[in-house]
Protein 1
Amino acid sequence: MNRAKRAEPTALQSPARQAADKDRRRLQMADIARLAGVSVSTVSRALSGSELVNAETRVRVVELARSLNYTINQGAQNLRLQKNRTVAVVVPYDSASRQHISDPFFLAIVGSLADALTDRGYEMLLSRVDADKLDAASAPYDAGRVAGVIIIGQWRHHDLLNEMAARHVPLVVWGAEMPQQLYCTVGGDNRDGGYQATRHLIKGGRRRVLFLGDPQLPEVRQRHQGYLDALKEAGIQPERQWLLDVPFEEATARRRLDETYRDGVVFDSVVACSDLLALQAVRAVRATGRCVPSDVSVTGYDDAPLAAWSDPPLTTVHQPVGEAGKLIVEALMAQIDGQPPRSRTMPVKLVVRKSTVT
Amino acid sequence: MNRAKRAEPTALQSPARQAADKDRRRLQMADIARLAGVSVSTVSRALSGSELVNAETRVRVVELARSLNYTINQGAQNLRLQKNRTVAVVVPYDSASRQHISDPFFLAIVGSLADALTDRGYEMLLSRVDADKLDAASAPYDAGRVAGVIIIGQWRHHDLLNEMAARHVPLVVWGAEMPQQLYCTVGGDNRDGGYQATRHLIKGGRRRVLFLGDPQLPEVRQRHQGYLDALKEAGIQPERQWLLDVPFEEATARRRLDETYRDGVVFDSVVACSDLLALQAVRAVRATGRCVPSDVSVTGYDDAPLAAWSDPPLTTVHQPVGEAGKLIVEALMAQIDGQPPRSRTMPVKLVVRKSTVT
DNA sequence: ATGAAAGCGCTAACAC
DNA sequence: GTGTTAGCGCTTTCAT
């Protein structure tokens, strides 16, 4: 397996051995050099387009390499050059449900990041980690595999993220900006999103507004704050039972909604923290024979493609996914270049469709 | 930038220089060795859990490394060991529309692959390439960055894929199995999918069935064949205008549908090659004042989450995305282990919802 | 049980 | 303009 050989002092490889050698040994620079009748340095220079090498030789070498499908071994090159153009993108999943990479929003943001990274000539290493072991996210950085790390969502582990940042891991987190945070976040304006959705419901005459989402997650907490602000502004005193603190998980959400009805909680509208959650609310409402939006209005969050096509089309808070990818990557590149982290909050927009009355 | 120094013969690094050295030089094995008072060999052995090293020393070294967040540099390790546990996943995009990574199906399969690779301890390098330059997909393999390549969809470039396989690139393509193909495919049974959808429409009394999708793509061609088979079985002679050869692109699809109406083509049902395409068909039908499914039945393909929630919920051909990831990865691992490519076709299932009459 | 040293495939400083 | 050589951070023989 290992080809290290003290026994053969200088000779590169005896021809016999070479032929025997698994006929598909990977090509390397020395091979090109031999075939072109020059030294490896010359090949290296030629392939990097150096001016130092004779134009004619350069062309010959480049052609030869191309014709043989030779590409510089990137691992070796990175090692020598002490750099690399790869970024880790980490999608946490809920340890209980393992649920998350299927949420359309998460998938969409991965797509958007793929584009933004490609545009800058970076590659993307995609991985999933348990949301409760978020520190595992820095492993590829510690191993020197990537130049920086992007995490989708901060979950319950503000502290772990702060530790990573303190260790100077170039890091951008999609999520909520929080006081005393050391790491860089890029995210939508969650407070405003929650506020706009709730105010829209109140304007539509609703007064008993359920909130569906787990405020332990920073993003959700801020949306909840916006929700409270809107209620207060309207002089509405929220009841304790209006908060349904469910994770981003459809089955659980549905169960809680059904229980809420069973418990006799009266409500005329729901602010949900994702479109998928909103659609579960629609189902639960309809299961009781009520109608959306005439009996109960429902708002979603994210504006996934599905929100426009669903029955009813969802009124929802649009998150600028496409632009998000660009900003996240931009923020990461700045840190890789040694600049201090600078968080960004992006405006969100309420998209009114048919799941709410106006 | 470059730290290679002839001037300093053997000394690892003078302490002064070391301190000056950008205070955040990455930790390496030599540092751990120095701090533990042993040689690098011992550290290497300790970290790999070798029996050769004193149990006590081993524990000490491992603890030390952990406490300093040291991780073995994977690039260097790979170079030395001549292996790597990364796989490239390539999502082609249509050169015209750049459209593809947003299709829910593609995103879903990426998620499923992420899971399957993680389960086997592999990492995933995700990239997008122009569908017309599919040979670029092997670049990370040629550069020694990955152990194999997975491509989502074969597009118009059967030939390029065959060339890659001939070069012995470990490769699995999600798509249709074709005659005389050298590379390995894993895919749904497209002919059967097209057949089942069409037969279902005919059973519901429809006789004038539009086909929406571009048969230049192998997967679509096979679905089209199934469609033709079903028509033939029912003694229906398809008309030329029933074939709407549009790419997987919503705007184009909508336009073609509108034109079809304008041209006076009469039809009572549509077999679409994705759920998104099907929903465009629904819109086009409704735009003329007709109803789905009473006037026109529509079937989708893929059974994306959206299909269950849309208005109307789509009758669609379910593709086993979750299992697909597992099979694809399994097929790739077999090739990496030197086994010959073995293609697989997975059964598909028609899911009947409300976009068709029964 | 531990250490010294060679070498994985590449780049660049240094000689010529 | 081209070749020689050291070394990027690691693993593993070989010697002790």
Protein 2
Amino acid sequence: MAETLDQATSLRRQPKQARSQERVQQILDAAEQLFIEVGYEQTTTRAIATQAQVPVGSLYQFFPDKAALLKALAHRYFEQEYQLFVQLHAELATVPIAVYVDRMVDAFDQFAIDHPGYQAVLSQMIDLMTVADAATYNEFDPQIGLELAQFLARRNPTLAPAQCDLIATVALKTVNELLWLSLTGDRTFRQQLIAETKVLMTAYLQTYGV
Amino acid sequence: MAETLDQATSLRRQPKQARSQERVQQILDAAEQLFIEVGYEQTTTRAIATQAQVPVGSLYQFFPDKAALLKALAHRYFEQEYQLFVQLHAELATVPIAVYVDRMVDAFDQFAIDHPGYQAVLSQMIDLMTVADAATYNEFDPQIGLELAQFLARRNPTLAPAQCDLIATVALKTVNELLWLSLTGDRTFRQQLIAETKVLMTAYLQTYGV
Amino acid sequence: MAETLDQATSLRRQPKQARSQERVQQILDAAEQLFIEVGYEQTTTRAIATQAQVPVGSLYQFFPDKAALLKALAHRYFEQEYQLFVQLHAELATVPIAVYVDRMVDAFDQFAIDHPGYQAVLSQMIDLMTVADAATYNEFDPQIGLELAQFLARRNPTLAPAQCDLIATVALKTVNELLWLSLTGDRTFRQQLIAETKVLMTAYLQTYGV
Amino acid sequence: MAETLDQATSLRRQPKQARSQERVQQILDAAEQLFIEVGYEQTTTRAIATQAQVPVGSLYQFFPDKAALLKALAHRYFEQEYQLFVQLHAELATVPIAVYVDRMVDAFDQFAIDHPGYQAVLSQMIDLMTVADAATYNEFDPQIGLELAQFLARRNPTLAPAQCDLIATVALKTVNELLWLSLTGDRTFRQQLIAETKVLMTAYLQTYGV
DNA sequence: TATGAATGAGACTTCATTCAT
DNA sequence: GATGAATGAAGTCTCATTCAT
């Protein structure tokens, strides 16, 4: 995972010193907040720098261009999401699928709440990729999907690997979208949608006897 | 529905003459193509006008600003999607839910193929709404969801109306996202994902005995 | 000649109306003055626009970028220089070479005085070409050289065409450089240098019996 | 001459130690290469430092600013060119002028080949002088011209000193320009142009009976 | 003395929208 | 109504130079 999520590719300079690392985080935090508030395109690099209380020049010392901020944020999200998943996944290796779904959806829900910019950043990255070559696509984190597919294969060895990949993809995509949707509503709506997401996922996975 | 989707709100002038209606369609077609190809933000109004073979001034006679083109496109999609749905929905009023899902997913898949800009336009509208006041939200078409909820209620009268609304929302959102995802892959991937979508939806709806 | 010096390649839009043509000239005049005063690199497009009393946007309506101003100026110089040359050349078809040189050098001297930016523009274009591909080189006007070579061939038919080309190149280059050098000094220096240039050229051409 | 070309004026610190002298040369070599390759303006001080494998800070310890690099390079060229000239000049004190021209042009040609940056540096210095006060002008090396003028006076004592100065100036300027021009072409062009330069110079100087 | 991260003014260029014709 | 030239605010990014360490 380390390689996939390494920020080296999108960082102009690897911050070695504590002060620099702080600055990078400040910049990313500022970018995240502004991307959420006014959207990626409407956010100016100068606004990010101002918000982060650094000169624009410093921003460009760490990030080659505006898009790099987006990528770096995505990397940061992926890293955190992956760590969350890995830990919980280990704990739930042998529980019934309904429990697995219940706990996992709750965890992802919490992640979505903690990282309100995830959706905005991801959706903008997809937009950017529409323009650029699709080669950038492999920047996206496939780790969770792979682990989930292996999990399914262990649970039901009769499932073909390709089948497991597909199910994992569908499950992740669906849960992600529904949780993001849940964030657009009030507390009640969110809770209901989470409950519904669990029903949906459990029914789906039970179909495959996992 | 006609009222909801009426373009009056986003059209500066209701084109009465055939020539004008033609121009509006040309402009929307050009906008659609460019939004798909290079994205909303990267598309200039002048490029749209050029592609549509109309002067920029004419574009602004029909659309107050660039965002209006996005809204108009969304309306056009909603109208077409709704007609597709209504017709098929009537035909499938009494078939088993698995058949309903099968036919409906195929239809939506075909719609997604026929309207490759749907995803781009919708996702961009969401971005724009982040910035603008949420009042724009009611521009979105809730019709299909409402009809689907009623359908569920008819199929299983023990379900509460709120419950039906929620299920309908979940079902629509999920199918939409998975079909859009399917468009990003090759033919094989698309077919597999469509099949998987049917499995997922059928399992889900059968949970509720509809 | 018209084709070679046509400005179509460097003008974004061919100004059709009198007002636009005026603007283009204003912009070029402003660019010329500033290029002379502070040099090409130190001149900002905004300064050119301000000096020409047009908004920057208008500048970019006619010229795709800063370099296009340089090219357009060069074209303008070439055109004027060529006309000057052609007219005088016709008049001097049969005079002794010393007279030809005398009159021609005087004419070029007057041109250099009238177009103080010629040197700056040309030298900057050469710098720009160092960076860009050398394909741009054919933008330079070879017309005068060709005509001069033919002239030499007529005067002394024993000279090979290639030889004539070379002599013409040397003569033009030398006269140009010396006249430019003359502009860097005071009136006396200029007059002395012009006289010297005539001595040099006459001696050179008489070597070939033309 | 040593004083005139002394680098003290443009060097911030006279490098006393071997290590420092090495660094200065590395920096100048790097600057020369980059000035040739991408031009003075397009070359960043950081790029020069990187290429020279020294930190930017060190560069600024030896050179007060970017322009100082240009001046220092010019000084280095002048010094080398002067040494070349002085030695050959002594050897050719009494040969016929045609031989003098022949040998001297060949030597200058070799110098131009060995120092491809000469032209770029000189032409850029002229540009810079346009901007700065003309006081910088005396930085240019007049030595060769002076010696040449004296040489002419010795050869033909009837020539006034001012006349000699002028002839020397014309001769040097002309040879320089033609040799630089020769570098822009292929081998054949270069050889032809050199031959032509000799014809031109010999004819010119013979006019004055030197 | 040596280093290289930090700075921020300012450069070029774009483009949604208007309005005189 | 139709046209498209005109506008200028604003955006992204660069880079010579400094100075704290």
